[in-house]
From TrEMBL, chain A:
Its cofactor is FAD. It comes from Methylobacterium aquaticum. The gene is mnmG. FAD binds at residues 15-20. NAD(+) binds at residues 274-288. This is tRNA uridine 5-carboxymethylaminomethyl modification enzyme MnmG. InterPro entries: FAD/NAD-bd_sf (IPR036188), GIDA_C_N (IPR049312), MnmG (IPR004416), MnmG-rel (IPR002218), MnmG-rel_CS (IPR020595), MnmG_C (IPR026904), MnmG_C_subdom (IPR047001), MnmG_C_subdom_sf (IPR044920).
UniProtKB/TrEMBL annotation, chain B:
It comes from Methylobacterium aquaticum. SUPFAM superfamilies: Folate-binding domain (SSF103025), P-loop containing nucleoside triphosphate hydrolases (SSF52540), TrmE connector domain (SSF116878). The keyword Endoplasmic reticulum does not apply. PANTHER family: TRNA MODIFICATION GTPASE GTPBP3, TRNA MODIFICATION GTPASE GTPBP3, MITOCHONDRIAL. Exhibits a very high intrinsic GTPase hydrolysis rate. Involved in the addition of a carboxymethylaminomethyl (cmnm) group at the wobble position (U34) of certain tRNAs, forming tRNA-cmnm(5)s(2)U34. The lineage of its organism: Bacteria, Pseudomonadati, Pseudomonadota, Alphaproteobacteria, Hyphomicrobiales. This is tRNA modification GTPase MnmE. GO terms for cellular component: cytoplasm.
Length: 627, 437
């Protein structure tokens, strides 16, 4: 371990959560000499809140992280104890792989992956300050005075920046329960003029599973055929478990109402915004009081762990009130709380301070990823971490930074949303955030991103070889489907009824008909029987969406045209005659990189865009992501 | 996949002009022009007379002067084509419709030509700034006009439809993004949602089927003055307009092209059009003038058929006509059922104006015409088509495709009324469902 080395690291990653781990791994994959600084080595890969990975929208991000050779998917495949493919009965574009994870297995697997990376040093310590010389970061300074010089720094501080936990009337300065907050870095960011804000999130109490009556409640089982996250995982071998389902009752709601004044969220103790999609149980009762109850999942935190995560009762009520509420849940009348739920407030940096590369404009060489940018969720953090780590390494190597756009990935959607609109609540991914949902699917993340990752230098040889094989099989099969065809008369002989228009249709076209199945076509063309089922599913999906995808391609081409128009980094909006002051201010806050991004800023008029266009320059085609 | 779309838009204003110019810019400009004229491209940078046909049906649209302007030495720096067509809104609308139906062509957004011109280095900064001012002024004028003429009726209707569809979308998106939540219905499109979508579709269809009254209200109620040569059409136009806009002379056949006067009649926008007198002529230019007169008559909202005492009765017309006996100062003998006027003395003019006003008022009606621009019409048609699929196939289509059609329908409405952000939808979603375990 290198603890106080005088020769600078290429990249220093601050924080060892989901963003930090991916940032460090991505930088190291690129070949950068990387250091990861974390309070404690044994908390690397910790899940502070819900022990689950993936879900709707989030599952897309995990697959994209995997396509760029990140760690999260492979770690979750080793630690997952309840794999479920959400939206299985809906279309492939909106399916979401999710698994509950064994907390210990997850951390262990993540630590093993990180330990295997040769050019990554892990340093235990707290970063108290940054060294900044002439507007450029030059390293980090630890609380104990050690200096760690580096060419680029990625901050992934999660909820630690001036973290403050609330449990009823009690407040505890902390990054998460049992760990101290990071105060020094907030001061550093303040000093350099960053716009800081406060956000809030919460977590439920943890229960002792031995005190829950599992027989008296409903169960939810894992899928029979668990679908792995990573294309490198052949199959899931970790044992799968069930979780329990219970519900809040009117009696519980009444108790919550009676104690609202003691909840930190409602007593005035917390003023910052929490996420609407992850409301506390207090919020649910206040905002949706008419519902007769709210569903609660009882999720075991591990195979050999008695801790149970009651998903759905995040709260900042006093501990004794939490205990009473829990005991009003069916199956939990004797339940014992191991650790109370809490709300936590923390500092975040207005993400409009960032370029779409996740580099800050105030301090060059400084990158931010994860909750510090106002997001929530492990998957959102991991995605940003990967992009920030890769770009930090590229910056250290003096290579042009990478931007992912909205038309190629959810990573691009997320980063563009953040740097263009900022946040008013912790930001979480949904599939509905993407305009190109039918194109950005979990089943084609590798096709969208692995090739790009290769060009950017973040794909290991193992994945590159694997991807080449997969891609060849996909291309060959697609070509085969397009090369064989039938007339309606010939189809009829095989029992397939088509419009008798005499038009010859390829096997690929036939698959776009909802009533025609792969197996039917395998009767006509026996070579289809040799295609692996996953590949067949993938091609059926492409065929089903073909008409919509064609239109989406036209939309994407238009989008890319606007994205190809680059605005100068130092453009002085004050000198552009004809812009209103309000618009100048907005443009100056966001500092759009492209004309397309400018158009997405609220309030930008066609006339203003015309003025901006006068300053835009066409980006060389090579820098635009390939279709 | 970076080839730019081809855009088109009228380059001349929306009022009635003798000639309207439609510009096409982009890689499809050449093929489009060839398809319209059903022939190979005319010589570059020359005006050539060609017949324009609807590319799919082959229906004759107009005889026009066309120009083929290969890039990059063009206004936008791209391949361009210009169509100089006859100025009537019907011709212009038919051409814009035909262009809009071609794959790869889309109506230009405000500023699009300028933007391309600038991007291709065809314009300097000062010129762009000037244009931005103009666009601003025009947008403001349009907004004021919309408020004044229609009391913002279209904006309000679109907003109502959009709000309604956002509610439907919040339901479909909730079922896609939060299907693992206890509070959310698993059905992507409920029967109520489908019915709502089809109700909005019907409302949009009704607005589209308004006989283009809104466009007429904006462009003016067109009154064409027609009749035999020297029947006194130009004299009457001048008398009505109280200024010498048409060249009046004693020589029959002086007016060879249509001349227009816009006037306000009892608060209604009325466009008076003087035309060449109808007769068979051997003079090629006059013959073209006569042909144009006939077309203007066909497109008129009202024809004033002028005849001298003892002159010809009007030929059979496809549009409402009013027979006006002119030169009342010269003769006593006029037919009983015709208005008699004397442009010279002013006799009968008041009665004639009152009669035109009565007919115009009846025709324009006080109803709520919504659609006043072709661009709005195209966007609403696109919205209707997406909703059509939701209404008819919503129960059968996969969930994400139903959502896709609703999203595209809302986007089309956004093009009429301003953009929609994902946040709009999320606000809706989070206020209607209890999301979050």
């Amino acid at each position: 371990m290198l603890s106080d080395d005088s020769s600078p690291y290429d990249v220093i990653v601050v924080g060892g959560g989901h963003a930090g781990a991916e940032a460090a791994a991505a930088a190291a994959r690129y070949g950068a000499r990387t250091a990861l600084v974390t309070h404690r080595r044994d908390t690397l890969g910790a899940m502070s809140c819900n022990p689950a990975i993936g879900g709707l929208g989030k599952g897309h991000l995990v697959r994209e992280v995997d396509a760029l050779d990140g760690l999260m998917a492979r770690v979750a495949d080793r630690a997952g104890i309840q794999f479920r493919l959400l939206n299985r009965r809906k279309g492939p574009a909106v399916r979401g792989p999710r698994t509950q994870a064994d907390r210990k297995l997850y951390a262990r697997a993540m630590q093993a992956f990180l330990a295997d990376i040769p050019n990554l040093a892990i340093i235990e310590g707290e970063v108290a300050d940054l060294t900044v010389i002439d507007g450029r970061v030059a390293g980090a300074v630890l609380k104990d005075g050690r200096a760690v010089p580096g060419r680029a720094v990625v901050l992934t501080t999660g909820t630690f920046l001036r973290g403050l936990i609330h449990i009823g009337e009690v407040t505890i300065p902390a990054g998460r329960i049992g760990e101290g907050p990071a105060m020094g870095l907030s001061t550093t960011l303040d000093r350099h003029g960053f716009a800081l804000g406060r956000l809030k999130t919460g977590t439920p109490p943890r229960l002792d599973g031995r005190t829950i009556d599992w027989h008296g409640i409903d169960k939810q089982a894992a899928d029979d055929d668990p679908v792995p996250f990573s294309t490198l995982t052949a199959r899931i071998t970790t044992p799968q478990i069930e979780c329990g389902i219970t519900r809040t009752s009117q009696a519980a709601h009444d108790l919550i109402r009676a104690n609202l004044h003691r909840s930190a969220m409602y007593s005035g103790g917390i003023t910052s915004r929490g996420p609407r999609y992850c409301p506390s149980i207090e919020d649910k009762v206040v905002r949706f009081g008419d519902r007769d109850g709210h569903q609660i999942f009882l999720e075991p935190e591990g195979l050999d762990d008695v801790t149970v995560y009651p998903n759905g009762i995040s709260t900042s009520l006093p501990e004794e009130v939490q205990a009473s509420i829990v005991r009003l849940l069916p199956g939990c009348t004797r339940a014992v709380i191991l650790r109370p739920g809490y709300a936590i407030e923390y500092d975040y940096v207005d993400p409009r301070e960032l370029d779409p590369t996740l580099q800050t404009r105030r301090i060059r060489g400084l990158f931010l990823a994860g909750q510090i940018n106002g997001t929530t969720g492990y998957e959102e953090a991991a995605g940003q971490g990967l992009v920030a780590g890769l770009n930090a390494a590229r910056l250290a190597g003096a290579v042009e930074l990478a931007v992912f756009d909205r038309a190629e990935s959810y990573l691009g959607v997320m980063i563009d949303d953040l740097v263009t609109h900022g946040v008013s609540e912790p930001y979480r991914m949904f599939t509905s955030r993407s305009e190109y949902r039918l194109s950005l699917r979990v089943d084609n993340a590798d096709e969208r991103l692995t090739g790009r990752g290769l060009a950017l230098g973040c794909i290991s040889p193992v994945r590159a070889a694997h991807d080449a094989t997969r891609r060849a099989a996909l291309d060959d099969t697609r070509r085969m489907l397009e090369s064989v065809s039938l007339t309606p008369t010939e189809a009829q002989r095989h029992g397939i009824t088509l419009n008798r228009d005499g038009i010859r249709r390829s096997a690929f076209q036939l698959l776009s008909y909802p009533e025609i199945t792969w197996d039917q076509l395998a009767v006509v063309w026996p070579q289809l029987r040799d295609v692996p089922p996953a590949l067949a599913d993938r091609l059926c999906t492409d065929a089903t969406y073909a008409v919509y995808l064609d239109r989406q391609r036209a939309d994407i081409a238009a989008f890319r045209r606007d994205e190809a128009m680059v605005l100068p980094a130092l453009l002085d909006y004050g000198t552009i005659a004809g812009l209103s002051n309000e618009l100048r201010l907005k443009l100056d806050t966001v500092r759009p990189v492209t004309l397309g991004q400018a158009a997405r800023i609220e309030g930008v008029t066609p006339a203003a865009l015309t003025l901006l266009a006068a300053h835009a320059r066409r980006r060389p085609a090579a820098q635009v992501p390939a279709e | 996949m970076l080839s730019p779309d081809t855009i088109f838009a009228p380059a001349t204003g929306y009022g009635r002009t003798a000639v309207a110019v439609v510009r096409i810019s982009g890689p499809q400009a050449g093929p489009t022009l060839a398809a319209l004229i059903r022939a190979k491209l005319p010589p570059a940078r020359r005006l050539s007379l060609r017949s324009l046909h609807e590319p799919t049906t082959g229906e004759l649209l107009d005889h026009a002067l066309v120009a083929w302007l290969p890039g990059p030495a063009t206004a936008t720096g791209e391949d361009m084509a210009e169509l100089h067509v006859h100025g009537g809104p019907a011709v212009r609308a038919a051409i814009l419709r035909s262009l809009g139906a071609l794959p790869g062509l889309e109506p230009a957004q405000p500023g699009a030509f300028t933007r391309r011109a600038f991007l291709n280095g065809r314009m300097d900064l000062t010129a762009v700034e000037g244009l931005a001012d103009l666009i601003d002024a025009e947008t403001e004028a349009q907004r004021r006009q919309a408020i004044r003429q229609l009391d913002g009726a279209l904006g309000q209707a679109v907003e109502t439809w959009r709000e309604t569809l956002l509610d439907v979308l919040a339901g479909t998106e909730a079922a896609l993004d939060f299907s693992d939540e206890g509070d959310v219905d698993d059905d992507v499109l409920t029967e109520a949602g489908r019915v709502t979508a089809s109700r909005v579709r019907d409302a949009i269809q009704a607005a589209l089927a308004d006989g283009r009254r809104g466009e007429r209200l904006r462009d003016g109620f067109t009154v064409v003055l027609a009749g035999a040569p020297n029947a006194g059409k130009s004299t009457l136009l001048n008398a009505l307009a109280r200024r010498d806009v048409a060249i009046v002379s004693e020589i029959p056949g002086t007016t060879r092209d249509a001349i227009e006067v816009r006037c306000d009649l009892g608060g209604l926008p009325v466009l008076l059009v003087d035309t060449a007198g109808l007769r068979d002529s051997t003079d090629a230019i006059e013959a073209e003038g006569v042909a144009r007169s006939r077309r203007r008559i066909d497109q008129a909202d009202l024809v004033l058929w002028l005849c001298e005492p003892g002159g010809d009765a009007p030929p059979p017309l496809s549009v409402p006509a009013l027979v006006v006996a002119t030169k009342g100062d010269l003769s006593e003998s006029v037919s009983d059922n015709a208005l008699t006027i004397s442009a010279l003395t002013g006799a009968g003019l008041g009665t004639l104006l009152a009669e035109i006003e009565r007919i115009a008022a009846t025709s324009l009606g006080s109803g709520d015409a919504l659609v006043t621009r072709e661009r709005q019409r195209l966007a609403l048609e696109s919205c209707r088509d997406h909703l059509d699929r939701v209404a008819t196939d919503g129960a059968r289509l996969p969930a994400e495709l139903v959502a896709e059609d609703i999203r595209l329908a809302i986007r089309a409405l956004g093009e009429v009324a301003g953009r929609v952000g994902v946040e709009d939808m999320l606000d809706r979603l989070f206020s209607s469902f209890c999301i979050g375990k």
